[in-house]
């Protein structure tokens, strides 16, 4: 119950809990400015230390084959820095000169180039460069940049995994998009506002929350490049409504109250309204956190955090800004440019029986169509509106030179015979073009690295004295604890070429064996290549072979062939500890996890939003109607790619369907809430006209921001996933707005009976009585009185009074 104080000027409202909180926020606005200022400064500093992950496969479930394979490879193998450089419009002889020049660069281990079509084609040369250091070493990238700079006079294109070229390109693109979005947002706010000075209030409020959200990502450790790129734009589109709601409430109260009182009342009223509105959005986003593919939790947490920080800025920062800009808002009022939409409302009323049937037919067909949506699970088959420098280079190299699809097959180490057998079996498949492995790599004079050599054979190969070779083999057997080999006769002891060769090198370097200078130089040169080969293909517990296939990266045939490769290894090694890694296997795992996450996101987002709406409307019918309409819009959204035969990156569906269900449904909530309120005092036609005119400003303000933000992302980004999210987002928002404007009103009109019968609101026991004349009251009442009163009164009175106290007393409440 509201509390009152009677003073010399009459009775004044002190306020309820919300007004008490609002009063504190307004009166302590300088403290709020100080807190937000500190948070903004800290965030500007911390955002430079946020770690960004650019590899989507990192977010695969820990038990997925790709994730297990990558973890094993990180621990077991060394990946040396490498790059492919294509120089176009060059002669073969000149290319040979460049090859020799690059080879001489300190830090370059080798440069592959020859006159085959794999390296020279149509006047273009392709150099495969391997660096001395591992790819994590920054020196590799510096060397590559120096090489590119040296030959920048040529038409040069580079393909490499070194550095963060992708992240840098996306960052530049998003900066451009943000500038354009900012201009659009300001323009939309100017057109939809009723006073120019409210625009800076809204902009400052959003910028503060956006900066704090970016800085607070530091607390999460590492975030995905998708979250880092699109969160700020989605935050704007999803949360600008909160600031607009408070601003509109302030302008409404400003007509009756001074600035301070108007802000207090606006904040008190908006806290509940904004909090309720945010719950559907948070519910939809929370569904993303339940995904196995951990990019879902990454984005879900980031976006939920963005929503909460936006609400905090509106509740605690914006009131102070309204106090500061309040007077200027009074002076800069202008004509409301948003038109009335009576014609649309009348159309809705006239078509209340037709449009629901049409919509039902459309969504039924769309449900069937969206089931055949052409999802893709990698970037190989995707085309983006723009390409960054790296993508242009990769496309040029791909179009000029043949490129096979490479997969890494990982298996337990220690059995070279099984490795040879596996290679032979795999080479029998027509899909396999080439295999790189220790077992088929030549060491010296025709011997493969895994071929076994006796002391006699090793002596003949290396020109090392036979007796010395016997001693070396005996020493190796002792180190390997193969004592039986010694007793059986060391002359018959055969050791893999790679193992004995590296052992001889090590004991020579340690000074236990003295070799001739020429032999030692030959040994050192071969050792470097063998060690690098072993580092890359053999670890302490696992070995790997690189299988090059003539299949595309994407497609069911390729995915199934990865299973075939794995099955061959399982048969030979008799263990399930076999793993395959590569672009194709990553996509295959994406496809597997999508099948589960698709169901999880759909069901959980619907259930969570239904629960929120159930308590919002206190009716079972209303939430079902609203969710059904938005779910229908989602089906239409993802049926369109089926019709136009356009590939959709699978992540786009998971993200956009959650946002569409959680955020776009707010438009439907605004319309439904207003209609329920209007029906208390109006007939159906009047109520629907009032509802549409009331809701249209909200929809026309935030809706275009959603649409334009998504459109710009889809047209100006070079990343397939980000492009897909933007495209599906703006298309879905357009569909949702059309449904809210031209389908929902009709559903509300004809579904009114169902909504009322499924309501579980407690019937009010308060009876309304409004009349003119003289009446006798016997009971507990509240309300307004304009007249005279005679009788015994026990209660509280609010207003201006002129009383004759016949008996008893009048006192202030706290007495």
Topology:
Layout: E1 4-7, E2 10-13, H1 17-27, H2 29-46, E3 51-53, H3 65-76, E4 80-88, H4 92-103, E5 108-112, E6 120-121, E7 124-134, H5 138-150, E8 155-160, H6 165-192, H7 198-216, E9 222-224, H8 225-254, H9 259-288, H10 295-331, H11 342-350, H12 355-370, E10 375-376, H13 389-400, E11 405-412, H14 416-427, E12 432-436, E13 442-444, E14 447-448, E15 452-453, H15 455-462, H16 466-479, H17 483-488, E16 495-496, H18 497-509, H19 517-537, E17 542-549, H20 556-573, E18 579-582, H21 583-617, H22 621-644, E19 648-649, H23 650-678, H24 684-716, H25 720-742, H26 744-750, H27 752-757
What's the rounded overall pLDDT mean? 86
Q: Using only CA atoms, what is the Rg? A: 36 Å
- Poorly predicted residue ranges: 1-15
Distance between the termini: 17 Å
Could you characterize what this model shows?
- The protein contains 27 helices and 19 strands.
- The protein has 815 residues and is of the alpha+beta class.
- Strands 4, 5, 6, 7 and 8 form a five-stranded antiparallel beta sheet that branches.
- The radius of gyration is 36 Å and the shape is elongated.
